[in-house]
Amino acid sequence: MATIKPIPAPARDAKSSGGIGRILRPLLAILVLLLVAAASAGATWFITQRLQQPQGGAPVQLGVGQVPGGQPGQPGQPGQAGGVQGQPGQGPQATPTTFVAPSATPIAVPAPIFVPIEAFTVTLQNADTERIMHVGLTLRVSDEQTRTRLEKYMPEVRSRILMVLSSQSPTAVQTQQGKTDMITAIKQAVNRPFSPLPDGQYVTDVLFTAFVVQ
């Protein structure tokens, strides 16, 4: 009977394996060094670009009436067809805005100036009736010069007012319209220039302080 002998597997060459390992280790070390150097160079380039970027792309602060790339107040032109943009230095015109801070103190209002007139008593009459009218007046003037002048020319002021009062109708002065017409006539009479002065006075209103018709 025939017997089968096992065929032994070929033994690996220990020397061959050891030689390949010695060759691969230096190659791997060199490859790792190259990768580290490339990563370091890339990081250096990236940091350099980041540091240089604000110099070329710094934000531009625009003032009132200024547009990007232009001077304040210069009219701009829209970009032309085909992607051509408006030329630098031109933009839409804007009107400068001025802000005024409110006043810290309120504006002073000038005090009113009054000139009191001594009361008048006159007789009013027409064809049908006769009345006695007692009137107290105060004149309101626009400035100190007018007040000084009226006080200086007071006899003439009273004479002019008395002429107006004595010419009133006894029935008309008791109506609202009659009183309004009398105020207008008194202002016109008092504001006429006093001779020899060339200009008149500035009486702005006539106020009744007493008014009695009997």
From TrEMBL:
Belongs to the FliL family. This is Flagellar protein FliL. GO terms for cellular component: bacterial-type flagellum basal body; plasma membrane. InterPro entries: FliL. GO terms for biological process: bacterial-type flagellum-dependent swarming motility; chemotaxis. It is found in: Cell inner membrane; Cell membrane. The keyword Nucleotide-binding does not apply. Its main location: membrane. Keywords: Cell inner membrane, Cell membrane, Chemotaxis, Flagellar rotation, Membrane, Transmembrane, Transmembrane helix. The keyword Iron does not apply. It holds the Pfam family FliL. The lineage of its organism: Bacteria, Pseudomonadati, Pseudomonadota, Betaproteobacteria, Burkholderiales. Controls the rotational direction of flagella during chemotaxis. It comes from Achromobacter animicus. Residues 59-97 are annotated as: Disordered. It is a single-pass membrane protein. Residues 79-89 have a biased composition (Gly residues).
